[in-house]
Amino acid sequence: MVILTSVRKSPAYLYAKTYCLCSLVSLVQATPVSSRVRVTHTRTRFRNGRVVVSLLATQEESDTNFRHLSTTQPAKGSLSQKTRGIVGRWYQRAVDLASVKTLLQRDETDVATYPELQWDAKVRQGSSLHHGENKFVELRKLRISSQGEDSLHRFLDLPPDEKVDYRDVPLIALGGSGGGYKVMYGFTGFISAAKKHGLWDCITWTAGVSGSCWALAAYYTIARHDIQRLIDHYLTVASELAHPMSIHALNMVARSKRGVYFLIGPLVSKAQKSIIGLGIMDLYSTLTATYQLLSREPKGRLSRATFQWSKIWHRSGIDKGLEPMPLLAAVRRVPKYSYEPKTILAKAKDAKKEPTPQQIDSVEGNDQKKPAVSANRRSKKLFQYFEISPLEVGSPDLNRYVPTWAWGRTFISGHSVDRRPEQSFSLLLGQCTSAPAGPLAECIKALLVTIPKNTIVARLVIIFNNLLQSKHFEGFWGNPIRAGHDPNPFYGLERPVGMREHTSEHSMYISRVAHQHQRGMHSSDKSVSDHAALQSQSLPPWEAQGRTRLMDSGMANNLPNHILARPERGVDVFISFDASSDIHTGAAVQRLHHFAADFDIELRDVTREFHKPQHNTALTSSLALEVESRYMDHYARVFHGKRQSGQDVYIIYCALLPNGLNPTYNPTVSPAPTHAITNY
User: Fold this and answer.
1) Other beta carbons within 10 Å of 190
2) Which end of the chain is more exposed for a tag (fewer CB within 10 A), N or C?
3) In which band, very low, low, confident or very high, does the pLDDT at 362 lie, cut at 50, 70 and 90?
4) In 274-373, where does DSSP find H-type helix?
């Protein structure tokens, strides 16, 4: 058993597992199964939106080393030469796998790169914003005002003698929806337009769901805030016409410098440092993130800085208010139970009287009297929202947060029990984009929209979907693909001692807490103990589950407004870019009302109260003019609402709709948007 466990945690086994997964994906994507993979790939590199070099890569050329890619078509060699080439490649792969553990051991002592190795972490409890975020908001408002860069003045084209006081600066948040590669490219284009017109410099927060998280991650890491560099990168990625979990993607990452370390290293570290097991979504996380964040420049490589999400707070100048603060949205299912030291009989009685956790409408504010609920309000809440910022990872539903660099550590009763380097951002990013781990019915809906019609896979999915509908299994989770595990930072003990020990780390912590508890009993007076007791009564109990699963928040709501709308942030204007697959059905707008109902806000469409958009004078063809006139009133819809505090909020809803500049392409119904949406 020990030998088997060691093998399952070895880099070679994890790489073989990843290779098998990529082979399966490549098979499903191949012609005629889904008619997506081509025999040849054209790899085109861009700079400033223009083609720098275009390479025609056949199957033989794709087998060459990515670090030494030739620009000419190789001649066919003999069988012995091909054999030597295959043996040489796999020998190099074995060398790379053998170096993974050595590089991980180096990370354990590299305090310069990972200063958190000297830090202990603690759970922050409360609804207030992090003190770093409060400081950022003030600096950002100052920068936007006339006392700083005067961004708002330029954007609104105010008279020269009019000044914008920093206290009058509205708090604007930009959010991108989920939608895979389509929204990844589309949200990048939206950011580019926002930068071009000066809107980006007036935004305080930017948030994403699923595919938008990919765009934000790339913008703040490999693009280094240069939107043109990011566009060039995505144009090159789109020209490869490769699935991010295909053999082609795996080979590109593995053949780059230290690519195997960034691909397999996070998995080995996670498997060896905790009781948490690895699943398919962990492999999905590292593969998709490394493939997308791999620079396509000559001698492109991955770096450790790319996968340190907490470090962009200083590297990007966010701490000085130079860039909007990024937030990534995720959800988890509401836990089935919480830690309650009751007898079995007491629990049985409570079960008869109280609703199940799935019927609880909201985790926070359960003890408060709720006002009248609008007709749009949903009767139950199955998910809890989490936000991932460079500062913290936590839930506004729970009012508990941990430092981002400490996510992945083992916590007990609010304190970390070990010190380790920051978990690779690829794992956290993968959880925010883990749409395949959602409910089976939702996965089927997404597949029906994206899979090309009249293919074997499409027919099989339709048959399976009809079976689910006939059996009324729409609400059944039923997905064998589960979200990745992580140690639950909100796991803890109601009392310092008396809990079962699960690992040696738990044992060490319990001994330390017991010692501190005994010292406190002798040194503290009655007032201190009364204050502690009062504080403990006002906080929810620690959770009984030692693991937690974060998932794509698109399965709850495909826009990140829930994490942006925290009352403590006080956002005045929400700009929502939506590239969902169901925009044309009206369900996307309904989700806005669901969000507003969750915050007791009644939305009213006030689009007609604002000036009508100007027509594009550059359009000449009748088809282009027809497309523009059809969607003119839908490109930007404005909704107004009022919080219970009296604050007015506006939501500007911008959907990815057909445009007169490219009248023959409809992004709302296109089955394969990878290349077309980039041109769009």
Assistant:
1) 22
2) N
3) very low
4) 280-293, 312-315, 344-353
